[in-house]
Amino acid sequence: METQKLYAKITNDYSAKILNWAIKKTGNRTAGEDLSQEVFLQIFVAISKQERIEKLENFIWKTAHYVWCNHVRALTRCSSGQMPEALPDGTDFAQDYADNDELQRSLFNMRRKIANLSNHQRNIVILHYLDGLSIRNIAQKLETTESAVTWHLFDARKKVKKELKIMKNENSYVYSPGKMGISPSGDIPQKPDTDKINDSLIRQNLCLLCCGEGKTIDELTELMGVPKSYLGYDIDWLVEREFLVMDGKRYQTSFIIINRRYFEYRKKVYLKNKADISDKIIDYFSENEAVIREIGFYGSDFPLERLMWPIITMFISYVSWKSELLLGLKSHDNCAIHADGGKYHVMASDKSDGHAIDISGRYDNSGWEDFWGIWSDSYENGKLTKNPGTCYWLGVYNFAKQETRPEIVTCDENTRKLLHKLYCNIQDYGGLNVNEREKLAEAVESGLITKNGNAYTPNFVIFSKTQLATLQEKVYAPLLVAIEPKLDTLAKQFSKNHQTNFPNAKEGNINYHTYLDLWMFGIFSLMFAAKDNKICIPDTPEEGVPLTLVLVK
Q: Fewer C-beta neighbours within 10 Å, C or N terminus of the chain?
C-alpha cells in the first residue's frame, strides 16, 4: 500500500517536471512524451527493487539521466541499422516488473495516467497490435518514416512486453475506446435520449461492453480505466432511461447493437439459402422475361441484365408492404415507449474497428459498402403517407454515395414535383420554361437522360399506374407466394440469433431487426446475381444511379 502511495505521489508531483525536461532534451514534444514515459516506468521498477529511497528527488533525476543516456545510445545503434532486444546496457526491468503480481497491478493503474504523456507512440501501438496494420501502412497513415515506426514499436514492446499480449487479446477499452452510433426509428421526440448517448463516449462504451454478457461496475471500471465515481452517474442514467438493465450485480444492454459478427452471420445465412431465395428470384424473372416486357412500360426494352435492377428494386418494395410477415415484424405498434416520450425502435451499430462494414458482411472495397435503402416519396419522415409512391430509388452498390444520389430523391417537395413532371414527359420536351430547361440540362449532364439531337431519352424505368399494377399482379404476387414460406423460416432463425446474442433486447427491437434481415433478401439477390454475371455492373457510380430509379406516372 505504501509503495502504491509513493507511485501516486511521484506521478502527481513530477509528471509536468519530467515532461518539460524530456521535451527540452529531445527538442520536440512527441519524442519528449515518449522519453518521459520511459523515465516513469524505470522509476517505478527501480523502486520495486529497493527497500528504501533516501533522497527521492535525487533518485528521480538520477534515473531520468540514466534513461536519457540509454536513449541516446539506443538511437545511435538504431541509426546504424541495429535493433537492440533489451536496454542498451543489457538491463530490461520491464520483464521483471511484469512478473511481479503486485507491481503488475500497479503498472495497470499507473499506465492509464502515464499513457497520456505519449499519444504518438500509443497510436502506433494500437494501429499495429490492435488494427493489424503493417509498418509501411502505419508510416503512410501517420506521415512519418518506417524507421521511426519500427523504433516506437520496439520501444513500446520493450516497456510493456506482457501487456501488449493482454491488449491484443482483450482489446482493452483503456487503450482504444469503442465507438457506437445510435438513432431512433419511429415516433421521435424533439430531443431523443439517443442523442445524449451519441454525445458521450463513456455512455457508448458502457453500452458496448455490456452487450451480450453483462458486466459488474468493477469490471467496467477496470476495462475502461475510469473510476467508479465517474462511471456511476452515466450507468444510473442509462438504467433510468432503460438502455441498460440490471441482472443481479451485472449490467446488460437492452437493445441490439449490430457489429461485424452480426453482418457476417446474416451473410452466412443468405449464402446457405442462396438457391431457395436469391437464385429462385433471378431465375423466376428470367423465365418471365416475356411477360414483363409485354406490359410495355418505358424501359421494358432494356437488356435483361439492365432491366433486372429496377424489377428487383420494385419487388423489394412490393414485398415490404404486401407480405403479412414483414408487415407484422416492422410494425411501429411494437415500438417501446421511452422515457423521453418517444415511441421508437433503438437502432445502434458498433463502429469501433473504424472500417466501413458493407451490407454483405465484407470489409473490402467490393462496391457494396455503401447502402441507402429504397427511397420513396410515399414516405414522409419515415412514415407511410396516404399518397401512393410516384418515385423510387434504391441506393445500393457504389452509386449510393452522397455525391451521386439523384436530385429527385434529395430535393424539396416542389422541386421533386417539377422534376417528376419533366422526367415523365418522354415524348415532348418543347415549350419548357427557363427553369425546366436548366433542370433538363442538369439531368443530361448527370446521365439520367441522354440527348441525341433534339431527342431526349430517359435512362430509367417509367411505369403508368396501370402498368405497375399489372406487374405486381402477374409477376410479383406469384413470386411472393413462392418465397414467403422460406422467408418465414429465415425470420425464426434471425430472431433466435438476436435473442441469443442480446438476451435483454425488447421483443419489438428484435422483431424490427428481423424485418431488416428479411428485407435484405433483395439486396443479396442483386449481389449474387452480379457475381453470377446475371446483372450488369456499372463502371462508375454515376453510371449506376439510373439503374434503380423508377418513376410512376
A: N
Supply the pLDDT for residue 413. 86
Distance between CA atoms of 529 and 360, rounded to whole angstroms? Answer: 13
Strands 449-452 and 391-395: unpaired
Report how far residue 173's alpha carbon sits from residue 208's, in angstroms, rounded to the nearest whole number.
10
What residues pair up with 373 in beta bridges, in sequence order?
A: 395
Domain residue ranges of the chain, discontinuous segments joined by +: 2-170, 180-254, 258-552
Spatial contact of 105 and 95, defined as CB atoms under 8 Å apart: no
Q: What is the pLDDT of residue 92?
A: 38
Q: How many CA atoms lie within 13 A of 25 on its CB side?
A: 21
The 3-state DSSP class for residue 214 equals coil
Q: Cα 217–221–223 angle (5° rounding)? A: 115
Helix or strand holding residue 437 (H, E): helix 434-446
Residue 380's pLDDT is: 55
The pLDDT assigned to 98 comes to 36
Q: Cell digits for 426?
A: 418522354
Tell me what pLDDT residue 117 has: 36
pLDDT value, residue 147: 77
Place of cell 491488449: 167
Q: Kindly state the helix (H) or strand (E) to which residue 41 belongs, with its residue range.
A: helix 29-48
Q: Report the distance separating Cα 124 and Cα 166, nearest Å.
A: 17
- Alpha carbon distance 503, 499 (integer Å): 5
Q: What's the confidence (pLDDT) of residue 466?
A: 95
In b/e form, how buried is each residue of 313-322, taking b as 16+ CB within 10 angstroms? bbbbbbbbee
Q: Residue 298 has what DSSP assignment?
A: B
Q: Where are the alpha helices (DSSP H) in 180-259?
A: 193-198, 201-209, 217-224, 228-240
According to the CATH classification, is domain 180-254 in 2.30.42.10? Answer: no
The pTM score is: 0.68
Write out residues in the chain with pLDDT < 50, as ranges. 1, 78-117, 162-171, 355, 362-364, 382
Amino acid at site 24: K
Whole-angstrom Cα Rg for the chain = 30
For the chain, the straight-line distance linking the first and the last C-alpha, in angstroms and rounded, comes to 80
